[in-house]
Amino acid sequence: MTYQEQLARVKATIAAKRKAMGDVMTKAAKEDRTPNADENSQIEALEDEIKQLERNEQRLIGLIKSLNDAENLTPVAGENPEQAGASADGEKEPQNTGKNVTVTEQKLAPGIGFVQMAKAKALSAKLATQGSYVSAVEIAKSSGMHPKVVEELEKAVQVMDTTNSGVLVPTTPLTDEFVELLRADTIVDKLASKMRKADFNSTIAGMATGATSQWVGEGEAKPVTNATYNSVTLKRHKVAGISVLTEELSRFNLFKADQRILADLIESNRMLIDLTFIDDQAQNERRPAGSLNGATITEVAASDATTIKAALAGLRKQFISDNLSLSDAAYIMSETRANEWAELETPLGAPVFPGLQADKGQKTINGIPVIESESAGTIVELVKASEFYLADEGQVEVAYSKDATITMPDGKLVHLFQENKEAIRAERFITWAKRRQKVAAALRFAA
C-alpha cells in the first residue's frame, strides 16, 4: 500500500468516526436529552481515536511531501564531468550529450533510519563527554547516512553539552517506524486495538460486583443489595532495551550493523513486554501487573488431544461462569505449541484444531484468535483484551553509554570501557491494568 493510499484510508476512517460520533449525539438530541453514560463513553472513545488518526494523517502528509521533494531531482546530461557541468549550468545541448542521468534516492528500510539517527546522536554525545563537540548532523553527513536521517536531525538541531547529552530523543517519522515495528511484535500490541485507552498516573473507578434485582409480589418486601466497587491505578512504567556494539560498529555506517542494532532493540523490548504481560506478578513502581496476577492457573499433566480439548473447554467455561463473554478474547501460546497442536489428528485423520493450520496472525481455536509468542513457554492463556486499560506514550527515548557494566541475557557481564564497546538503550513508556481480576485464566502444561 502506498503512502497516498494510506492517507486516503486514514481520511476515510476519520470521516466515518466523526459520522458515528454525530449519530450518537443526534440520537440523544432527538430524544430531547443529553448523552447518557454509555453514549459519553462512546463519544470519548471516538474522540481519542480521531485524535490519533489525525496525528497519523499529519505524519503521512509530511512524509509524502518529503518523499516528493526528494524525487523532484533534475536530470543531468553528459558522459564526462565537463559535459555534466555544462548541463548543470543550463546548457541545453552540451557537446556529445549522452543519456540523461537521473539521481534517485535509495529507499530506506523501515527502522534503519531510527537506528542511524540514534548512532549519530550517541557518537555526538560521546565526543561531547570528551570535550570535542561534533553535531549529530555533521556525523550523519560525514558517515554517509541516508539523506532522510540528515533531514530529521537538522529539524531537531539543538546545542548539546554534558547536561543534556544523556537522553537522546529521535524525531518522527523515523521514531514512528521503530515503534510500529515494535508494535507488530508484542502480545500487548496485538491486543491493543481491543484494550481501553487510558492515561498514565491515573486512577479509574469501577464496579467489582453489580447490584441484583428480583420479581416480588404485591405487599412483599423488596430485596436490598449493595454493589461493590474497586479502583484501578495505572502508573507510569517504561521498558528499556539495550544493544551492545563495538566502537567500530557505532563509528562506521554499515547497513548490516544497523540491522543488527535494530533487531537487538526490538527483541529486547518485545521479550520483556511479553514476559511481563503473561506472568502472575503484582504491579509495583517498576512494572505493571502480569495478566495472570490473581488469575486461576490450572496444571495439565497430559498432552493428548482429548485432555487438551477438555482443558480449553474448562477455560472457556470459567470465563462464562464469571459473566465474561468470549468476544474480544484471545488465546496466548508459544508458536511451538501452536504448531504441535496443529499436527494433532482425530482417528479419522482430520485435524483436531483446523484453525491452527492458518497463517501466523490468523490462527484460531473454536473461532477465538490465537496470539503466538515463545515467551509463553508452558502457559496457554485465555485473556479478554477489552477488560484491560492501556496507556502508551508512542515515543521512544534513546540513551548512550560507554562506561557502564551491562548484564547480558546469558548472565555474562560486559564492561564497556574495558572491552572498547558501547551501548544504545531504547526506552518506551507503556503500561496496562486489568479492570477486574478475573479477566484471564491459564493452563500450565508439564512441557
Structure commentary:
With 447 residues, the chain is α+β, with helices and mostly antiparallel strands. It folds into three domains: 3-70; 112-173; 238-445, no CATH class. The chain has twelve helices and 15 strands. Strand 8 and strand 9 form a beta hairpin. Helix 1 runs antiparallel to helix 2, helix 4 (112-129) crosses helix 5 (136-142) and helix 5 runs antiparallel to helix 6 (147-155). The chain starts with a helix and ends with a strand. The model is unreliable at 158-171 (pLDDT under 50).
Spatial strand sequence of the major β-sheet: 6-15-10-7-9-8
SSE string, helices as H and strands as E: HHHHHHEHHEEEEHHEHEHEEEEEEEE
Q: Low-confidence parts, pLDDT < 50 over ≥5 residues? A: 158-171
Question: What helical percentage do the residues reach?
Answer: 25-40%
Number of helices: 12
Described by strand count, sense and barrel closure, the largest sheet is: 6 strands, mixed
Number of domains: 3
Shape: globular
The fraction of residues in strands falls at 15-25%
The number of E-state strands comes to: 15
Mean pLDDT: 76
Structural class by secondary-structure content: alpha+beta
Give the termini distance in whole angstroms.
42 Å
Instruction: Give the radius of gyration.
Output: 28 Å
